[in-house]
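Model it.
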Amino acid sequence: MLWALRKAFRIAGNFYWKIFGGIFLSLIWYAVGVVLLFSVIGFPLSLECFRIGWLNYKPFGKKVALIPDRPIISLIWFLTAGWAIGIVSIVNALFSCLTLVGIPLVGQWVKICRLAFFPFCSVWK
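Modeled.
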């Protein structure tokens, strides 16, 4: 019974997330992935961008852990595009704090912000 309740809240949370910014952020990750497809070095990174784009589409019920296994690529990412996506996530988290209905989304925005800053040092399931 408890798993059914968790699944129902996960579905409702993901629907609510998509309405209030999840689709927009997911499309940003997909666009970055498409741009990275055009270079030999960026091709493996683009696959990770598509995975993170899917996580941005449905973040409820998923956990993110930072594991520093590719720190050089993550540092390059942070200096080029990661800070921009991270700032978008931080601003959306702050706007969600201002509204009563947005408070459940704050945790998801923080999770996505961690991924935006260091996506290639993170594992999620």
